[in-house]
Amino acid sequence: MLRWLMGGGREPQGLAEKSPLQTIGEEQTQNPYTELLVLKAHHDIVRFLVQLDDYRFASAGDDGIVVVWNAQTGEKLLELNGHTQKITAIITFPSLEACEEKNQLILTASADKTVIVWDCDTGRQVQKVSCFQSTVKCLTVLQRLDVWLSGGNDLCVWNRKLDLLCKTSHLSDTGISALIEIPKNCVVAAVGKELIIFKLVAPTEGSLEWNILEVKRLLDHQDNILSLVNVNDLSFVSGSHVGELIIWDILDWTMQACERNFWTQLDTQQEIKLYQNPNDISIHHFTWDEENVFAAVGRGLYVYNLQTRRVIACQKTAHDSSVLHIARLPNRQLISCSEDGSVRIWELREKRQLTAEPVPTGFFNMWGFGRVNKQASQPSKKQQEDATSFSLELIGDLIGHSSSVEMFLYFEDHGLVTCSADHLIILWKNGERESGLRSLKLFQKLEENGDLYLTV
Amino acid sequence: MISAPDVVAFTKEDEYEEEPYNEPALPEEYSVPLFPFASQGANPWSKLSGAKFSRDFILISEFSEQVGPQPLLTIPNDTKVFGTFDLNYFSLRIMSVDYQASFVGHPPGSAYPKLNFVEDSKVVLGDSKEGAFAYVHHLTLYDLEARGFVRPFCMAYISADQHKIMQQFQELSAEFSKASECLKTGNRKAFAGELEKKLKDLDYTRTVLHTETEIQKKANDKGFYSSQAIEKANELASVEKSIIEHQDLLKQIRSYPHRKLKGSNLCSGEMEHIQDQRDQAATTSNPDESADTDLYTCRPAYTPKLIKAKSTKCFDKKLKTLEELCDTEYFTQTLAQLSHIEHMFRGDLCYLLTSQIDRALLKQQHIANFLFEDFVELNDRVVEKQESAPSKASQDRPPSRSLEECPIPQVLISIGSYKSSVESVLIKMEQEVGDEEYKEVEVTEPSSFDPQESLDYLDMDMKGSISSGESIEVLGTEKSTSVLSKSDSQASLTVPLSPQVVRSKAVSHRTISEDSIEVLSTCPSEALIPDDFKASYPSAINEEESYAGEGEGAIRFQASLSPPEPGEAEEGSLENTPSQTDSCCIGKESDSLRGQLSTPIHTHSDEDGVVSSPPQRYRQKDQGFHVDFAAENASPSSRDISSEGFPAYELDPSCLLASRDVSKTSLDNYSDTTSYVSSVASTSLDRTPSSAHPASPSSERHKKRAGQNALKFIRQYPFAHPAIYSLLSGRTLVVLGEDEAKVRKLVTALSIFVPNYSGSVKPVRHWVSSPLHIMDFQKWKLIGLQRVASPANAGTLHALSRYSRYTSILDLDNKTLRCPLYRGALVPRLADHRTQIKRGSTYYLHVQSMLTQLCSKAFLYTFCHHLHLPAHDKETEEMVASRQASFLKLTLGLVNEDVKVVQYLAELLKLHYMQESPGTSHPTLRFDYVPSFLYKI
């Protein structure tokens, strides 16, 4: 693979010869990110990024510190020190419209069994809760009720002033791994293989007490649930370690669709192999748009159409190792980051596939998957072949981190922020636009200094 | 480096000669005979061949009251430098022109001896016999044991190039003033210490004498005093007097005006010392208590000694050395400053001037020059800016501002005209040998020529012959000018050269006698020579000039203001020494001293050293001094010609004119800053171009080396162009190799192509052995990377291949380069492998000038408003982009990848301009997604 260094002169595409990993050369005309800025403040793995407003974001990680950055300049604005151990969850706490205090708050939970509320404008530690029995692994804010929930071994409900309103009994030793809000004052918590639905009872005239009640347990997953997202007004999705993707009705909590092991049924041989390494099929993250759910499954990316209830496109090996985070950008691009340290930019392209046309070899993998589906649902075969087919095209990759990229954050105006296990945060920017902005600023400054002379 | 790189490179006298790139030798029939002096290692521009020393040096001499003028030390302290040059003889010469009196003693109407804080005097003199010319800086140091408490010293910058001394007079004066100020500060400190000790001694002596007198009184019951007792009483009285005198001296030395110290950062510690001393003075001022308090509080270590009434004779004593006279710390500082001066003025005048022009031009490009210029100079620039800010604010004449801000272009003119005059002489040799100077002058300098003026200038040569035959000619000194005189001199400068002024100049200039010393500037009183002497007949001039042609070794003399002759001074000291005791030096000698020195005193009659003659005269003298210099300057080059029978004056007028203009304009430049007055008020002199120190010799050598190696690289590697393009466009170039020395060498060579960020560190790492990281590419633009033939290296190579999109990789071992394609036109001009340039320094300058050109393009691109902002609201980004593209292509004439170079530089410019505090952050890493190619030899 280092042949060119030794004098071979070949591109490192040799890397890809044995694996089906799609690569893109050095010429990436559609990749807008031609400028990067390395931000260094953390001393350990940076795991979380959270957007505060149009130009600020906060980063947090295993070193227990939270850093607030300016996404435009890359300037470090604040460093929040308070946790003694790694941070396990971070969430912004939007201020109420009615509230005169407009300061942006964030909540951080840490392995030191505390939750701290920070003021991101001043860097002040507003309040600290340290009465937890266990590490809080997830946080969620119910803005409608102006309460927030912390999920550890039990589920607690807090108000803005950090009074404990109510809590559940001990749920499990492994604790709640994910928590989402669903309508009707309900929340879904992923606890091991189970999804538990709780109903939050707000105080009424009858009773002044807050209460939280377990409503239902959903036991359909066969392995630990890793990801849980709210897709739209109708459904939420959960994904498990063994690659089960279940779509639930958000109102009556029934299973709408289930894709179980469908990523692995290519042939028995491979199935065995893959079962040996469940990491290859575990669903780490979801993202969605109006029509599709995008799932990060092992090293691959899959696009599941909500209407047709089937996978319409996929990249089986989108990365060299597990995909940790994916996001759908407003410009219809899909971005994925992975343990291999790279970030890739994909585009879902429509393709009118004519049946008569010979299938190009490059698409065999995808069509192989399609065949699997055909076996499963024979009636849909005709429909599928006539319908528009999609493919995920790699349009660029961002190489900068030397270790796994944990998460990224997209700013419409400022580009992409990635954080990684190499302790770094990288700000990726559109070089051309930045250059234009700099010129603009330059002339502003010239004008301020009175150095701008306009000649005819 | 902006200007005339090729010429400069040839004229610079190298400290060490580098091995030039050896082209295959020319066939014999094409070869040109070598310059006759080449065998002596001299280049054709060197004027040193006549001198007895190999290069310029600094000499410190003392006028010792015991042995007369004597050399103390030279800088550099290397006998090879001054060779067979007679230091003793030259010391005698330079000390003999110090006619400035530094008076110590009882001035009339004052009860106590008075210290004068005299200003230094600055003289330029030449000794054509020795082939030496010198800038001489006289100063006096205080020594309690010396006659009159003063020890006259001088520091001389000795060069074989008279032109150099004259042209660099301002700079020399400024730099030597710094050194002198430092020395004097240290001396004042030491002198105060001496005085304190002396006071203690005296106090002790008084106590002892007092006791003895009492004993005698008791022993003596006869009712009348014995002669012994009377003697004791007298002795006691003289000790009392001496105590008072010394206390007064101490007060004086401590009250040295503080303002003198401002701006002199060399002596920043002085203020504290003074404060200390003030406190001490408060205690010692009470004579009764001083002994006790001093004994126990201040200097308990010092035990007072009894001072004998008849102490040893002055010339038996060993006088203090210069180092003893001055606090050691200050002494070493002074030496450092002097060796700095020596470094600063090393090399040919042409080189010095060019680098001054260069720096001045760089100052004008202050927005873009950070890209490829050295940091040292940039820092200087910042300092200068700060310094000049107040003076700028004080200006009230806006038109002169532009002149003041760019003093150098005028110098540029002078060089140009000098050249042109030389050329015109050559033409004349063919065409006409007449004596129609006017016409000729008009040919060379038609625009600014004024017949009347030229007449006057020619006159002064004539005038000179009158006083020939004497031994010393002082054509001018820059003496202490008071602060008061400045405003007057300013006023006078606004008047254009009037006949009166010209006359005074003319008077000042003497020509040709048989003696060997010429002092080339004037002092005020010379202007008293009647105007009638002035004659303005062209024919006379011709005679004069031919005479000048013969009298090469001749002497110019200036009689009126000679200092006390050495003999006279010695006589004086002899006269006084026999009965001298330490204490009586003050009292007894002072009268005779006053008598002796009465003539010069009038110029220094008070502490500020106000010059008695009208300041504007003096000012114009200064101009005359420039002119003289020009005349002198012309002669070396004219000698060859005149020996062939051509009148030398043909050359002179144009030169005169040219450099007169220069001096005029340069004066104008300074005229509205109070700073110009060149005496000890040295703070303001920092503004002159010289204060931006030329790069230190080591970096000079570094440049030369880098240039040489870059040249080798260009010739050796056919893919030098894409490599250099990578550097210029901000793509990190990694030089990979096993041999550290080789890699370092190449990295150093290539670093001359690396644009700097906003002035923090040069983004070059010479040698790295650990795997590279993304941060490295953001920080460094040129990296030398170690290749190890071991598994450990796999990580390094892996990282390199991972980040290959950000880098170009030059493999030294395999001689390959992997980098994007380059098809521009810029780099081939910058790095032509068939270039005729052979020397590293020349090539370095070539690169610098090309890059400066490039910078100006980037500057234009960056700061053109319409290129970056939409002209109206409806204009789309695409239209703006196309306008940029067409500007780059059509207006700036850039092809293909050259555009990217300018764009990258423009980004750096933008970042630099907008950065509040330079050097705080690294710019973003910019890159392109372009394919790379592999180049092999």
What this model shows, in words?
The complex is a heterodimer of chains A (456) and B (937). Chain A is globular. Chain A is mostly beta strands and 456 residues long. Chain A has 5 helices and 32 strands. The chains are: A mainly beta (456), B alpha+beta (937). Chain A binds chain B through residues 1-2, 4-7, 9, 12, 25-29, 31, 34-38, 40, 74, 396, 399-402, 424, 426-427, 429, 431, 434-436, 438-443, 445-446, 452, 454, and chain B through 736, 773-775, 778, 794, 797-805, 809, 811, 814, 816, 818, 862-863, 865, 868-869, 877, 880, 903, 907, 910-911, 913-914, 924-932, 934, 936.
Helix share bin of chain B: 40-55%
C-alpha geometry of chain A: globular
Structural Rg of chain B? 33 Å
Structural class of chain A: mainly beta
Distance between the termini of chain A: 59 Å
Supply Rg of chain A.
Answer: 24 Å
Give the biggest sheet of chain A: 4 strands, antiparallel
Map the helices and strands.
The complex is a heterodimer of chains A (456) and B (937).
Chain A: H1 3-6, E1 33-40, E2 46-51, E3 56-61, E4 66-70, E5 76-80, E6 87-93, E7 105-110, E8 115-119, E9 125-129, E10 138-142, E11 147-151, E12 155-159, E13 164-167, E14 176-182, E15 186-191, E16 194-201, E17 211-218, E18 225-230, E19 235-240, E20 245-249, E21 255-259, H2 268-276, E22 283-288, E23 292-297, E24 300-305, E25 310-315, E26 323-328, E27 333-338, E28 342-352, H3 364-376, H4 380-386, E29 388-399, E30 405-411, E31 415-420, E32 424-430, H5 431-449
Antiparallel strand pairs in A: 1-32, 2-3, 3-4, 4-5, 6-7, 7-8, 8-9, 10-11, 11-12, 12-13, 14-15, 15-16, 16-17, 18-19, 19-20, 20-21, 22-23, 23-24, 24-25, 26-27, 27-28, 28-29, 30-31, 31-32
Chain B: H1 5-11, E1 57-64, E2 68-75, H2 79-82, H3 87-96, E3 104-105, E4 114-115, E5 121-127, E6 132-142, E7 150-159, H4 162-167, H5 169-219, H6 227-254, H7 270-284, H8 287-298, H9 322-325, H10 328-344, H11 349-364, H12 375-393, H13 398-405, H14 408-431, H15 437-444, H16 451-464, E8 477-478, H17 484-494, H18 499-508, E9 517-519, H19 538-550, H20 566-576, H21 584-601, H22 615-643, H23 652-671, H24 697-716, H25 720-728, E10 732-737, H26 740-750, E11 764-768, H27 774-779, E12 782-786, H28 792-802, E13 807-811, E14 816-820, H29 826-830, H30 840-863, H31 865-868, H32 877-891, H33 898-914, E15 925-926, E16 932-936
Parallel strand pairs in B: 10-12, 10-13, 11-12
Antiparallel strand pairs in B: 1-2, 1-7, 3-4, 5-6, 5-8, 5-9, 6-7, 13-14, 14-16
